[in-house]
Amino acid sequence: xxxxxxxxxxxxxxxVSWQLAEVIKNQGGVACVPGNHKSDFDPxxxxxxxxxxxxAVIQPAxxxxxxxxxxxxxxTHGTFPWRNEHDRRSILYKFASRTAVRGGGVRVPRPDxxxxxxxxxxxxxxxxxxxxxxxxxxxxxxxxxxxxxxVGLGE
Length: 155
Prior knowledge:
Blueprint: E1 2-5, E2 8-11, E3 13-19, E4 29-32, H1 45-49, E5 67-71, E6 77-80, E7 90-96, H2 111-114, H3 117-120, H4 125-129, E8 143-145, E9 151-153
Antiparallel strand pairs: 1-2, 3-5, 3-7, 4-6, 8-9
């Protein structure tokens, strides 16, 4: 998600993908167009659809434990169909600042609604804060980190 602040690009969405299984080059998985996140042009239609990506789209190899890290809205990315003999396994962590609304005002499900009751029943308020469901952040409380590194509920 790209916005501009004082004429400079500012990105407020990051994706981290931990690979749990081997990703063999050109056998499927995460794909992207490498480049400068500050370049401000739209790629040709063939690149974004991969109908004719003109060699601009790569699908990197990765070993279990490797991490793919990119600015979500700043880099053209997606996935190629998985063609490996083994299952595709990875953990995706997506961070978007509360100013990066993806859902257009979607209210975030409370943890007791988004997760089953048994999962959250013994959690403290601080633990529940990181369990909110995906959405724009509307209605979700915030966490704050104090100078000592302790995490607590925001005001």
